[in-house]
Design goal:
The two termini are 42 Å apart. 60% of the residues lie in helices and 5% in strands. The chain is built from 33 helices and eleven strands. The chain folds into four domains: 209 residues, STAS domain (Transcription Regulator spoIIAA, 2-Layer Sandwich), CATH 3.30.750; 34 residues, no CATH class; 455 residues, no CATH class; 66 residues, no CATH class. Strands 3, 4, 5, 6, 9, 10 and 11 form a seven-stranded mixed beta sheet that branches. The chain is elongated. One of its GO terms (cellular component) is membrane.
Length: 834
């Protein structure tokens, strides 16, 4: 209630309005609002949460078992209901694991047998630790490409360092005057991380890089385990669906270009691996391959084309008809192609007759377990972080998709533990980094898979290949694996519908997709991911700060500010530009800003408040800039009401009687503030003071508890009283109505007082009028216009009458000074007469 106005002076209809609303403080007291927890309480809760499993042996055992979900779901497994579906899905996915594992191992530059290992061990371990029922863990093209790129760069770095140390050692030997030297002693002088590595081993490590690749991959998996321990799965939220889609498509281009030399079987040699893996490296490799097409192996190229035709006819023509008719799992044409190509290559001796590259000898059995070389961490940790984040982002997104589709829950943090522990344990068995693959996961779902137990049957099939069938793979042509890889990428490039939808719905999301794709293609996979994330974060700032000023953005993208009005017959307040049956409240404007109030957009907030109050101070509604021409409801639904909204476009005359009433109360709906920073709080104080200076009362409605806590911490309430805060918009409107009634009451009272004073002043002015002034006026009139004698005589009579009245007034003024009643009567008389 305004100051200097007592309740006793106000009419009853105004004082009764005070009972219709609550201030924020009154609301908190009524409903026992609890203050935020203190720092000590947070520390205590954190300590209890960390050490809670160690309070008793039972809790410790329960904590350990929680990391092994199979202990919980296996005893309750529905054998009759799920076993057959899991068996069929496991065998089907296992058939896919064999050719894909071999192909992705070649993509990483390691022997094919390690692809079989990576299709066996991680699958079993994820079955123990994972919570998703349908994702298929194993080889993934994008991760294989990133790992292969990282492997090549790290090997070249170590090779350069070794040669530098070897040259330094030889210089020292030459200075000592020795004529011969045993190079085996060089290991005593090179850095510790190269201990036990001879010169010939470093040269041939690109070919025989079995252990090194898996050391680097195991370190990547340790990072995933660290992510789980630190509970940083939120980091993956920075990888939006559009970013991942554009990045995956761009990385698929890299996969295809890398495999082209195997399709044509042309030699592609690069002196500097890092230059090839750097910006424009893929284009350099593409140009190099195309420039040597004339030297290609014709038989290899023809076999590759036949393989493409075989897969296209089988997977895109026969499989849809076969599944439609027999309602069963699709035929494994990849495995058929591998078997057929191996048999034909063995019979016709492609390697000897046509110098066709084949897989070569594949060892039988499993390798002995060995620990990764942790001293290589300084070389791999940068790339490891990027690969770990991509694995987690892809895996968690697929877990979310299948859990929603089949209505079960997955634990994101447990999934981090699962993928991390799977990698850590598998790294001891010479496996490369793995992730969930969408193609195999979809195949598992279509094949009837119900639980993680299907992984047991797929691993069993891979085990058969490792123990007994792997020797027969040595005649498999390398071009067949390249064809399988390239053909598996075809669905990734079917993005026309997705891009059209993005262009229609969100130009910014479309820009994120295109930027991620272009950066990944023209730089490399690592830099493409980094630049894509940076650009996506930049668009977030762009959305919250400047986006409203650009016409190419759709309505759904804009961090709009709105004017709200009351819906007819309710106490609900909605966007005026979206509803037609609304009531605009006289003298009150309700303002809402749908964005966090940060230093990046506080200037935009300030200008929005200025537009809503100062620039157009008369009452008006936020209207549609262009009226929807809706021919039918279906057309309106198709258009999704995609219109631009602006404020103050309608003329003042359209608002009838209430249009010219000025704004005297501004209600800021704070429910749209998800976060405020220190700078925005200070700016909000300045906006409040400037608005009050312009004669507008400010109210804050619906501020969340964290926002009010931030106001308290920043000293906001020292400049703005808590009496200006209200729990809802309706409470603020009721308070504004009461204050407006008080203002009107004060104005009416002041108007009556001013009227009395004006009457008295008018009477005094008339009584003190000078006769000479009237004579001058008459002379001026006579000089300007011809006056008849009767008019002049009338004016002289009026002048004499005024002179007499003045003398009478002077005589009575001294006697009536002590009699107010007579004075008021005389003032009224004079006012009525003149």
């Amino acid at each position: 209630m305004p100051k200097n106005v007592a309740d006793s002076e106000l009419p009853t209809h105004i004082t009764s309005l005070r009972e219709t609303f609550l201030r924020q403080e009154e609301f908190d007291q009524t409903y026992l609002f609890l203050p935020p927890p203190q720092v000590e309480d947070k520390k205590r809760k954190f300590i209890l949460k960390v050490f809670h499993p160690c309070l008793s042996p039972e809790q410790f055992v329960r904590f350990i078992v929680s990391f092994i979900p199979i202990v919980g779901w296996l005893p309750d497994y529905r054998w009759k209901r799920n076993l057959m579906g899991d068996f069929m899905a496991g065998i089907t996915v296992g058939i896919m694991h064999v050719p894909q594992g071999i192909a992705y191992a070649i993509l990483q530059g390691v022997d094919p047998v390690y692809g079989l290992y990576s299709s066996f061990f991680p699958v079993l371990f994820y079955m123990v630790f994972g919570t998703s029922h349908h994702v298929s863990i194993g080889s993934f093209a994008i991760i294989s490409l990133m790992t292969g790129t990282s492997r090549a760069e790290i090997l070249e770095t170590i090779h350069d360092e070794y040669l530098h140390d070897e040259g330094h050692y030889l210089e020292q030997v030459a200075q000592l005057g020795y004529t011969s030297v045993d190079l085996r002693n060089i290991t005593d002088y090179v850095p510790f991380h190269l201990k036990g590595v001879s010169g010939i081993q470093v040269v041939t490590v690109i070919t025989l890089c079995v252990g090194f690749v898996h050391v680097s991959s195991s370190l990547k998996k340790y990072l995933q385990l660290l992510m789980a321990l630190l509970r940083v799965e939120f980091v993956t939220s920075y990888l939006s669906d559009q970013l991942v889609s554009g990045f995956s498509t761009g990385a698929s281009v890299h996969v295809i270009i890398v495999q082209l030399d195997k399709i044509f079987q042309v030699p592609v040699d690069f002196v500097d691996v890092q230059s090839v893996n750097g910006p424009g490296g893929m284009l350099m490799q593409l140009v190099s391959v195309l420039s040597k097409v004339g030297d290609m192996n014709v038989v290899t190229f023809l076999l590759s084309m036949c393989a493409f035709i075989f897969l296209y006819i089988g997977k895109d023509c026969i499989n849809p008809l076969f599944r439609k008719k027999f309602k069963c799992v699709p035929l494994p044409f990849e495995l058929m192609l591998v078997t057929l190509a191996t048999v034909v290559s063995y019979i016709f001796a492609f390697e000897q007759r046509y110098q066709m590259k084949v897989v070569g000898v594949v060892p039988v059995g499993f390798p002995s377990a060995e620990m990764p070389r942790l001293e290589l961490i300084p070389y791999v940790y940068k790339d490891a972080f990027e690969i770990a984040f991509v694995i987690v982002a892809v895996h968690l997104s697929m877990c979310k998709v299948f859990s929603r589709r089949h209505i079960y829950s997955t634990d994101n943090n447990q999934e981090l533990y699962a993928i991390g522990l799977t990698g850590v344990i598998s790294s001891c068995f010479l496996t490369y980094p793995v992730s969930s693959a969408l193609g195999r996961s979809m195949l598992m779902e279509e094949s009837g898979g119900k639980t993680q137990l299907s992984a047991l049957f797929s691993s069993a099939l891979v085990l058969v290949v490792i123990l007994w069938l792997s020797p027969y793979l040595q005649y498999l042509p390398m071009c067949i694996l390249a064809v399988i890889l390239i053909f598996s990428m075809k669905n990734i490039f079917r993005k026309r519908d997705e891009l059209q939808c993005l262009w229609r719905v969100s130009k910014v999301d479309f820009a994120i997709w295109m930027f991620s794709f272009i950066c990944t293609v023209f730089t490399n996979v690592m830099w493409g991911l980094v630049l894509s994330v940076a650009f996506a974060l930049l668009t977030t700032v762009f959305r919250t700060q400047w986006l409203e000023d650009y016409d190419f953005c759709t309505t759904a993208e804009l961090p709009r500010w709105h004017l709200l009005s009351r819906l007819e017959g309710t106490d609900d307040y909605r966007d005026t530009g979206r509803y037609g049956r609304v009531t605009d409240i006289d003298h009150i404007r309700i303002f809402r800003f749908d964005a966090p109030l940060l230093f990046t957009n506080v200037d935009h907030f300030r200008s929005a408040v200025e537009k809503a109050t100062i620039t157009c101070p008369v009452m008006s509604l936020a209207t549609l800039d262009n009226v929807l021409e809706v021919e039918c409801p279906n057309k309106a639904i198709r258009k999704k009401c995609a219109v631009k909204r602006t404020s103050f476009k309608r003329s003042i005359s359209e608002y009838h009687d209430s249009a010219m009433r000025r704004i005297e109360h501004l209600i800021i709906d704070c429910s749209g503030f998800t976060f405020v920073d220190f700078m925005s709080v200070n700016s909000l104080i300045e906006i409040y003071q400037q608005t009050r200076y312009n004669g507008i009362q400010v109210y804050f409605a619906g501020a969340k508890a964290p926002i009010r806590d931030m106001f308290e911490a920043c000293g906001f309430y020292k400049s703005v009283s808590k009496d200006h805060f209200y729990p809802s918009i309706h409470d603020a409107v009721q308070a504004a109505n009461m204050n407006q009634q008080i203002r009107l009451f004060k104005r009416a009272k002041q108007k009556r007082v001013d009227a009395e004073v004006t009457k008295i002043e008018n009477a005094k002015f008339l009584s003190n009028s000078c006769v000479d002034d009237r004579k001058i006026s008459i002379e001026c009139i006579k000089a300007q216009t011809p006056i008849e004698n009767d008019v002049e005589e009338f004016c002289m009579q009026q002048q004499q009458q005024h002179s007499n009245e003045r003398e009478c007034t002077d005589r009575e003024s001294s006697t009536d000074q002590d009699d107010p009643d007579n004075q008021n009567t005389r003032t009224t008389y004079l006012s009525d007469r003149y």
